[in-house]
Amino acid sequence: AYVQYAFCSPSRNSFLSGRRPDTTRVWEFIDHFREGAGKNWVTLPQFFKRHGYLTLGGGKIFHPSSATENIGLPDNDWPESWSPEYPYFANQPPNGPHTCLNPAIGRDGPGDGTWCEADVKKEDSVLSDQQIRDNCLDHLRIAKNVSDAAKSTTGQARPFFVACGFHKPHVPWVVPKEFFAFFPEYPDIPLAADVFAPIGMPAVACTVGVPCMNCTHARNTHTHIEHLCVSERVLDVES
Q1: Contact 175/116 with Cβ under 8 angstroms?
Q2: Catalytic-residue membership of 8
Q3: Of 12, 77, 210, 220, which alpha carbon lies 20 to 30 A from 32's?
Q4: Cα(187)–Cα(80) distance, rounded to whole angstroms?
Q5: Is 139 known to be catalytic?
Q6: Residue-wise pLDDT tens digits, 196-223
């Protein structure tokens, strides 16, 4: 996979504004692209909005704003980037009640809860991404109704842009239990032979924020759960 930067927020500020991190001046989680020169930049969904599209969004498209991250940016850049007649769905709705069937073993050892084999069905609307998925389907239905209504009154359907921001494979990895049957157990997951940074790569380009990332157990577990998360996302899209 290729990204603009090794962190989530700078990459999102970059691809949504169409500018490199060195142009947005966002290299961490604190700043955002609308500061300074980027105040009047047009984002991807905003471009569609300005051209008559109904633009609807939900989940993690923009990095969430808070007192410590993306400081000062209206949450999800709403309504600047989105049609104001429909509210933006939650960036990360909290998980509903569920039970983890696995021992609470995470990236830092027992008890940190990095991953969870959740006792929920894939079609439920309990976990955060399941709620985002269902909202995306609602947005598609809304968009179709609006488009059809415009066609019946003006003879021309209104175009639409719907953004659906799943969090996985971002941690924490909370996955419906049935996806664990799709892949081998984590000790049998093949790993990359070379785990080292390229020779000559600037140190700032490599961030290892997880203790023991090069340990076999951690690498096996992370690769295993990421496979499950990606599979869940693919099935959500196909549904």
Answers
A1: yes
A2: yes
A3: 210
A4: 47
A5: no
A6: 777 887 776 666 555 444 455 566 666 7
